[in-house]
Amino acid sequence: MKLSKTLKVKLGKLSNNKTTILDRVINKNIKSINFCLDKAKNGEAITHNLVYKDLRKLNLPSTIIAGARNKSIEIIKTYNKKKGKKTFPILKNGAIRYDNQVVKIRKTDNKLYKYFISLLYKATIKGKSDNRIELPLIINSEYQTEIIQQIGEIYKLGSTELLKKNNEFFIHISYSKEIDIPIPDKSFSPIGIDIGINNLSVSVARSGVKFHNGQKVKWKNEFFRRQRTKLQENFAIQEVKRLRERQTKYNDFEIDNISKNIIEQAKKELKPVIVMENLKGIQQAKANKKQRIRLHNWFFNRLQNSIEYKANWEGIPVEYIDPKYTSQICSKCGELNKRTRHTYKCESCGYEANADYNAGKNIQQVFLAKCQEEQATINLASNDTISEPKAKKNGSSFNEQSVRNFKRKGVSIPHTDKSVCILEKIL
Predict the structure, then answer these.
(1) What is the C-alpha to C-alpha distance for residues 161 and 301, in angstroms, rounded to an integer?
(2) Which of 30, 159, 187, 419 sits at 20 to 30 Å (Cα–Cα) from 325?
């Protein structure tokens, strides 16, 4: 599996001449993209032969022309997917995209800026080589230094983008690596992750448990919502847009921190596998108006996607299970009960614990039970006299096939004694 990341670096102080050059080439790039969009508006396909000669007159290198054409195609695809009334796109600001073949990053002895990046800014003239510009990079962390040093060795350099925001220039460097993700089985150590509102996540592993409380984030998002409502009443559209950007940045920061902590927890396990609930459709759940607002403004999917991507980057597999009954079943005896707010108490065995922690343990047990079912299916399939279809990969032990051991209150639930015993000895 090939995965990529982007390193965002701010450019150092530039001379007036270099600033003028960058402003000019960015404006030409925007003009090139809008030229391609205008062709598409007239019903023409944006092919290389259609736009190359015209865009070459802007004295742009081939790599920028190719990047502008590709960007215009992406914009058109996004535009075509929109429903309802839509205005044909016109680009007002855009990044310059460079192919990895023309980007050069070098280390220098400069005391202020140790790393420089060399980019093309105009077409090559035969006999001359003054078509490049050297730009200083502000590398202000050990993480960024490590990534820069490993590009070309561990990581493969991808496309690079130059953009301007609030009168400052930035470089986005894409890098990638090939990763082998193992197929998890019963020998793996599951990290059960329950995601919710009171606790953004509770990750239950053999080495311990981590709670990520969501009260502050919930309050902050509610604050953003109330502020937007006031601004919308006063028709302050630009302020609403800026507030949305602030909210997105805040949520992204929290998501990034939570996912990082979970991956660090998983890396302590011998053979980790992250197990989460399949929460597709959670925002359409039946709830009162206040709860719907919370669900619709929450970031269940974004958090899970962040955890999955970071896990795969470290070579850690991720599995999803059916969320049915994970918050209602006792992780100790397997009986069905109703949780009371944030506390779970079993009426049968008297087990009492945090409701999200109990759900996290159940998620672990579902994974272990699923592995046992799949192994049993494999064993049956290996017998020439017996043939059974293999269990579905994303199946849950909390389903009709594995629940026939006992019933309560008219609802089928699984027999999880074996997996419970395994985890009770470890946790």
Answers:
(1) 27
(2) 187
**Unique residue bearing structure tokens 């070098």:** 106
pTM over 0.70: yes
Beta-bridge mates of residue 204: 192, 209
C-alpha pair distances (Å), 330 with each of 236, 336, 351? 50, 6, 8
Backbone angles phi, psi at 362, to 5 degrees: -60, -40
Beta bridge partners, 171, equal 9, 162
For 402, the 3-state DSSP assignment is coil
Residue 171 CB burial class (10 angstroms; 0-12, 13-18, ≥19) = buried
Instruction: Specify the domain boundaries for CATH 3.30.420 within the chain.
Output: 189-321
Nearest-angstrom CA–CA distance, 353 and 346: 9
Here the tokens at position 182 are 């193992």
Residues 272 and 331: their CA atoms lie apart, in Å, by: 21
**Alpha helix positions (H), 314-388:** 355-381
Q: Could you report the per-residue pLDDT of 23-52, keeping only the tens digit for each?
A: 999 999 999 999 999 999 888 888 998 899
Architecture of domain 189-321: 2-Layer Sandwich (3.30)
pLDDT digits (tens, 9 = 90+) for 279-326: 776 555 555 666 656 655 567 888 999 999 999 999 999 999 888 888
Cβ burial, residue 57 (10 Å; 0-12/13-18/19+): exposed
118-148 burial, b at 16+ Cβ within 10 Å, e below that, comes to ebbbbeeeeeeeeeebebbbbbeeeebeebb
Q: Say how far apart CA 296 and CA 311 lie, in whole Å.
A: 26
